[in-house]
Known about the structure:
Blueprint: H1 3-13, H2 18-25, H3 46-52, H4 57-60, H5 75-82, H6 90-104, H7 125-130, H8 135-139, H9 156-169, H10 179-182
Helix pairs in contact: 5-6
The chain binds heme C (HEC) (5 copies).
Amino acid sequence: MNWRIFIFVFLATFGISLPAMVSISDFHLLGNHQDYEPVQPIAYSHALHAGQLGIQCQYCHSGAGDSRHAGVPSLSTCMKCHTDVKGSTETGKAEIARFTSMYNKNEPVAWVRVHNIPDFVYFNHSAHVLANVPCQTCHGNVQDMTVVKQFADLSMGWCVNCHRDQNAQNPKLNAPLDCDACHR
Length: 184
Ligand code: HEC
Ligand code: HEC
Ligand code: HEC
Ligand code: HEC
Ligand code: HEC
């Protein structure tokens, strides 16, 4: 058990309530931060691909509907189009040529991870996607972003408050509020 969880379970035995813990846990001890927008190694734009061109999110993030991780696509997914699509502007052409050569040399892309919850938290995409929570509720309007930016604060309060609201709005849902569901 993680030491922080241990301390909270200890506090819980002395009657500190979940709402109190949620407000305590709104203090971030860990590395997530809202509005984090790292520069990526390839100038890939969601606003162009998911916005203007209207490519479905799950065309590239195919794990979201049936597994824990949404996943980030490999260059072979990009090459399904970019073997033929070589770009129309000077900067676009140069960037497409650059990653095509990376692909041909089998070089991996070191995408910088944007969202990251701590290891002691269990989160599963498919449970949320199957309950029809739109990607945008948690990630914001990614289809308008040139560079992806962290939208939600990913705090414990954020998870628990949504679970409580969703259960109140739809009695058929059973989004968990117990510690064990998210901390296994
Ligand atoms: C719906 C999911 C969810 C539930 C239920 C939940 N937690 Fe958490 N918890 C989280 C997330 C997410 C974080 C990480 C927050 C962060 O990184 O700021 C967290 C963080 C923590 C931390 C680390 C301190 C901190 O603020 O980062 C402790 C301790 C903790 N939870 C204890 C508990 C206890 C005890 C319960 C039951 C009363 C509980 N949690 C219920 C999602 C949950
Ligand atoms: C053509 C492929 C493609 C499509 C379509 C696409 N994405 Fe992405 N997505 C990527 C790539 C590549 C990355 C990693 C680079 C980056 O962050 O821009 C990424 C990163 C992300 C991230 C950040 C991941 C992290 O590191 O935390 C989120 C969130 C995301 N996409 C959501 C979406 C959503 C929501 C949609 C639909 C509106 C979508 N994506 C459509 C390829 C795609
Ligand atoms: C209920 C909130 C929620 C919904 C809905 C959601 N995500 Fe996420 N997403 C997260 C969280 C939280 C993380 C960080 C997970 C981690 O660190 O393990 C994440 C991480 C990601 C990542 C980084 C790689 C990964 O799998 O961890 C991508 C890409 C992503 N989401 C895309 C999507 C797409 C596309 C959709 C819609 C099909 C979607 N997400 C729906 C909360 C959500
Ligand atoms: C479904 C087809 C499709 C997929 C998949 C796709 N693209 Fe594109 N991409 C396009 C089209 C169409 C354009 C516009 C080309 C033009 O301007 O003529 C484009 C343009 C681009 C550009 C140039 C942008 C500019 O400023 O002109 C880059 C860079 C790019 N894509 C990167 C990627 C990367 C990286 C991936 C994989 C994560 C990817 N694309 C996946 C169709 C796709
Ligand atoms: C926008 C609302 C929303 C947010 C934000 C959200 N959830 Fe959920 N969560 C749901 C819904 C809806 C369900 C599905 C309930 C059902 O199917 O009965 C669910 C189900 C779950 C489950 C049970 C299914 C499973 O995978 O075991 C876990 C665990 C869970 N969420 C963890 C988290 C964590 C951890 C976070 C924060 C990092 C989070 N959720 C953020 C709405 C949300």
